[in-house]
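job 3f2a | input accepted
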Amino acid sequence: MEKPSKEYISKNVNKFREQENSFAELLEKLNYGKTTHSDPDVDYKEHWDIELINKGKRILIDVKAIKKIKHNDVS
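job 3f2a | predicted structure (75 res):
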């Protein structure tokens, strides 16, 4: 599977961040722990978006976008 283009990523970065924020808010709302977001440099190099501290454990989460099923599906 080919990687998304830089143009696609920059066009959709706000949509991706909204999904990350929603997921982090849900984790906190369900009392899974405290969340923080990675900065873009850390996300690029270490491949994680959200850090969750749960019962003293550090859990790193990489939020993924839903992929198309077929190439010609509307995104």
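job 3f2a | Residues 4 and 10 are 10 Å apart (CA to CA).
job 3f2a | closed
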